[in-house]
Amino acid sequence: MHRRTSAATVCLYAALALGTLVMLVPLAWMLLTSLKTYPEILRNPPDWLPAAPQWQNYRTVWEGFAYYRYFLNSLFVAVMVIAGTVLTCCPAAYAFAYYEVRHKELIFGALLCTLMLPAQVTVIPLFKAFSALHWVNTYLPLIVPAWLGGNVFGIFLLRQFFRTIPPSFIEAARLDGASEWTILWRLVVPMSLPAVLTVVIFTFLWSWNDLFNPLVYLQSEELCTLPVGLLYFIARAEQLTGGSLGQTPWHLVMTLATIMVLPVVGLFAVFQRYFVEGVAASGVKG
Amino acid sequence: MTNRRAQSLWFWLFAGPAVAGFAAFSLWPMLESLWLSFCQYEVVTPPRFIGVQNYAYLFAHDASFWPSVKVTLVFTVIQLPLAIGAALALALLLNQPVRGRGFWRAVYFLPSILPQAVFAVVFGYIFQADGGLLNRLLALGGLHGAAWTTSPTWALPVLIGISLWGFGYPMVIFLGGLQNVPRELYEAAHIDGAGAWARFRHVTLPLISPVIFFNVVMGVIGALKVFDLAYAFSVAQAQPAPGGPARATLFYGLNLYQQAFGYFHMGLASAMAWLLFACILLITAVNFRVGRRWVHYGD
């Protein structure tokens, strides 16, 4: 369209590269610190690179301090939340996309409003109710809402996608005698796999990254998920390392942080397109 | 399916769980929370009705309420324009015909999806007065860095800075908006002799105004619920209570958590929750009023 001068092109790429550096420095410092020894992190002025990468830091955190448990806890919660989300959001999205029922738009609008609602607004009555049910200090408060269509963004996204499927497809399946349940899981969901995958990815992110809810509902340490475990680790680092290190063992803290970040980065590397499409879709209604 | 009754049956079978979840986990807690906000409730004894005393106490006597409102306001007023500006600038750059657009977009988006707790911890380490990377680098240049994380003056600016790494969401939304602007309009403006700034001001800006509007609303609501970042930052700095030093990073959402689960002032915290809810209603309403005036929704 408009020819750029070569100077402008150089400026553009220089700006992008500089920005990239700024974006990635904290992550790089986290990774590099995680591979250092304790004396190395104390060194001033700092060395950028460890003399020899200390991979055993990962073993220390994973096995020595039993952080594989927190990892498995996080994974368990995330898998259960994803399962509930897919199993209840797909039918709900199908219902809102294809059936004509009185007040349907009103109900859908009310559901969408909850997207604006911070967790802090509802947490106190929920905590009170979950306490009465003896659910506090179990995973149920984290998992059960997902099994009742708790991911409204997921319903919204799936509904948008389902609506692009021509109604004639569904009518044809009905004429063949397929039940609504079969049409949903055998026809509509397989045709909407990108949207379903986007929902799965975002549900994973929210569950994996969440600090607020586990902090409120999980009290015993062996139930903790990784974000809470990270904070425990910092608070009790001296005790964990037997007081042998004077200050906070930041190299081990960064090891744990890297362990938390790795699955997210891995997913992002593989499914970048779905992340971006999911975010873009959230802006569509705006 | 023409049969209305069958449709209605299937609708409730399919959407029923989600609607029940909405009633149980959003609607009912909102109402219960309203009731609790008029009660004295400290968990061990049942709630006791005390009228508007919680609200009166918050406004007139509570030591942390107004500081937390102020922190949240300052954060919103400074962070939001910076984040939206950065997101728009990056989106405009990436909307140019650049090589490796996918790579750049990925790099700028990646920090946004990482756990906020990790970001707070990593940056908390980088900004530490002794042993932090920043001050050690400053020392190499002969400068003496401040005690960033323990100074009431610097702690909030540091948190604002950290949160700016997360502009990836508005950036991607802007990119989507920019890609929807028809190229012919630019061509036409170019032929009419419009310069780059005029094209931005009179073509791009009006056409992406709904997206700007959306990002502003989401950004304000995001500021109202800041929790993970501030809480993890406090813990990583071994502060005696979350929101320190001297309440400098006591965000509203963090203060609410602390009242409810740190001190078990559940009635008081419910009043805070309802004020937060009222605030969100107000912002949404005002935004839509204002939005109607300056947002260009096309035809």
What features would you highlight for this structure?
heterodimer, A: 286 residues, mainly alpha, MetI-like fold, 15 helices, B: 299 residues
Can you put this structure into words, describing what you see?
- The complex is a heterodimer of chains A (286) and B (299).
- Chain A contains 15 helices and no strands.
- Chain A has helices spanning 6-34, 38-42, 56-64, 67-98, 104-113, 119-132, 140-147, 152-162, 167-175, 180-191, 193-209, 212-217, 226-235, 237-240, 250-284.
- Chain A is globular and about 75 Å long.
- Chain B is mainly α and 299 residues long.
- Chain B has 13 helices and 2 strands.
- Chain B is globular.
Helix content of chain B: over 70%
Secondary structure: number of strands of chain B: 2
Tally the helices of chain B.
13
Shape-level CATH architecture of chain B: Orthogonal Bundle
**Helix content percent band of chain A:** over 70%
The span between the termini of chain B is 33 Å
Mean pLDDT of chain A: 90
How many individual helices of chain A?
15
Question: What top-tier CATH class of chain A fits best?
Answer: Mainly Alpha
How many domains make up the 3D coordinates of chain A? 1
Largest sheet of chain A: none
SSE arrangement:
The complex is a heterodimer of chains A (286) and B (299).
Chain A: H1 6-34, H2 38-42, H3 56-64, H4 67-98, H5 104-113, H6 119-132, H7 140-147, H8 152-162, H9 167-175, H10 180-191, H11 193-209, H12 212-217, H13 226-235, H14 237-240, H15 250-284
Helix pairs in contact in A: 1-15, 3-15, 4-7, 4-8, 4-11, 8-11, 11-15, 13-15
Chain B: H1 4-36, E1 39-40, E2 48-49, H2 53-60, H3 65-94, H4 101-113, H5 116-126, H6 133-140, H7 155-163, H8 168-179, H9 183-191, H10 196-224, H11 228-236, H12 252-262, H13 266-294
Antiparallel strand pairs in B: 1-2
Helix pairs in contact in B: 1-13, 2-13, 3-7, 3-8, 3-10, 3-12, 4-8, 5-11, 8-10, 10-13, 12-13
